[in-house]
Amino acid sequence: MYPLDVVKTRVQLQTGKAVAGADTYNGMFDCFSKIIRNEGFSRLYRGITAPILMEAPKRATKFAANDKWGKFYRELFGQTQMTQSLSVLTGASAGATESFVVVPFELVKIRLQDKASAGKYNGMIDVVMKTVRNEGILAMYNGLESTLWRHILWNAGYFGCIFQVRQLIPKAETKQGQMVNDIIAGSVGGTVGTILNTPMDVVKSRIQNTIKVAGQTPKYNWAWPGVATIAKEEGFGALYKGFVPKVLRLGPGGGILLVVYTGVMDFFRNMREAKGL
């Protein structure tokens, strides 16, 4: 699904209204066709090393943090079972925790995905070296605040919806039925999470793609002021640039994620039981 992420980023980084030209995009399909026609098919996969390295620690942190925060909040509020509100709070906390893992990888990915980076960077390591050398080591965490908001909103929507959907649909009697239920719950959660966090994702992309220069305040520096600037200059709809490729990736991706997590946890649980642990 990585090409969808490249297209999403390209559209998000485009400021103002699209006009005709090789460097502007009128939507997802226009972006796909122009990248392939003008830059080559392989460009759809430029920068993929960073998210590949990021995925394992990112997803592990997401679910481990969600589990730990869930136990913490249940004890804190004296609840024996999860509730809708606790699921939202737990998801938000897990998202905030996850953010600290992903920010450097996201920054590298964004800068490699931008068309303007073609002549600037030779790959992931080159991005890291030039960013640290020219902007300082802390620059690797540019966009941390907007990333926090992005992950808080997505995970709150994701885990909150999973809880609610599981309560609404019939309980599965078989493993196949459980898989279908997880696909439905995870896909709904991924879609709702994407609706909630896309404005922050747009701002985050622009913040992380901005080269910091000493003595100059970037146009996009903080999350909520960035949202206000985009809405004022480009209209409210601009806050949802890249939404279609993003939801096509994270909607079904949320379902796949939940199915794989549940399956892997069941596998290890059965292994522990077989060994009598």
From TrEMBL:
Keywords linked to the UniProt accession: Membrane, Mitochondrion, Mitochondrion inner membrane, Repeat, Transmembrane, Transmembrane helix, Transport
GO cellular component, one term: mitochondrial inner membrane
GO aspect biological process, one term: mitochondrial transport
Solcar repeat segments: 1-72, 82-168, 177-267
InterPro entries (alphabetical): MCP, MCP_dom_sf, MCP_transmembrane, Mito_2-oxodicarb_carrier
SUPFAM superfamilies reported for this sequence: Mitochondrial carrier
Entry's localization field: Mitochondrion inner membrane
Topological type in the membrane: Multi-pass membrane protein
PROSITE patterns: SOLCAR
Stored Pfam families: Mito_carr (PF00153)
Recorded GO MF terms: dicarboxylic acid transmembrane transporter activity
Record-stated family: Belongs to the mitochondrial carrier (TC 2.A.29) family.
Protein name from the UniProt record: Mitochondrial 2-oxodicarboxylate carrier
Source organism: Triangularia setosa
Source species taxonomy: Eukaryota, Fungi, Dikarya, Ascomycota, Pezizomycotina
